């Protein structure tokens, strides 16, 4: 009974969510587009001509935002001034101009395919909305979340331009302070942000690292 009530409350909140309505109106696949939009507008991360890597891209809302951001007129189709490479373990409906790879980021052969797609270029921005399937066992979930963030940081160290930026989803709670420490060891500037589109009830927040420290 409690579960049904929770589902009804969630559905009610979802239907009445202003960002859900806005996403439907503006043609985004998910309200998550506005999280990246706010982060990008706050910090001016994505610029015309950039190479951007979108990790954990399905259903494609972040790729859609990036595609519009790199379009001369902000259009959802047509000319694209930049390169977007997206990756997810789940399938994703095509987004015009986005090079999508399906596979598990944790597997070496998938990582090799991603490196191949970069064609020797370094990324200007890496964005990661990757999140594991949560088990409800806090210690296990904390470790899984941390592992994906650590992989994203490691990818950035090897594939980001020295002045580039990494945006990752993290969760407040166990392991958060260690991830902040990792970011501070890796990047010259570290900014934690909770966009307005991130639900108040959610422990989700985002860590942004800008400019790799020398020697990284």
Number of helices: 7
Estimate the helix proportion, in percent. Answer: 40-55%
Strand order of the largest sheet: 3-2-1-4-5-7-6
Structural class: alpha/beta
How far is the first residue's CA from the last residue's CA?
52 Å
Proportion of residues in extended strands = 15-25%
Weakly predicted, low-confidence segments: none
Order of H and E elements = HHHEHEEHEHEHEE
Q: Which term fits the overall shape?
A: globular
- DSSP, total strands: 7
The overall pLDDT, averaged over residues, is 90
Gyration radius, rounded: 17 Å
The largest sheet, given as strand count, sense and whether it forms a barrel, is: 7 strands, mixed
Q: What report would you give on this structure?
A:
- The chain is of the alpha/beta class and 216 residues long.
- The chain is 40% helix and 23% strand.
- The protein is built from 7 helices and 7 strands, in the order H-H-H-E-H-E-E-H-E-H-E-H-E-E.
- Strands 3-2-1-4-5-7-6 form a 7-stranded mixed beta sheet, sandwiched between helices.
- The longest helix has 22 residues, at 138-159.
- The protein is globular and about 45 Å long.
Give the SSE map.
Layout: H1 2-15, H2 18-26, H3 33-43, E1 51-55, H4 61-69, E2 83-88, E3 98-102, H5 108-118, E4 123-128, H6 138-159, E5 160-171, H7 176-186, E6 187-193, E7 204-212
Helix pairs in contact: 3-4, 6-7
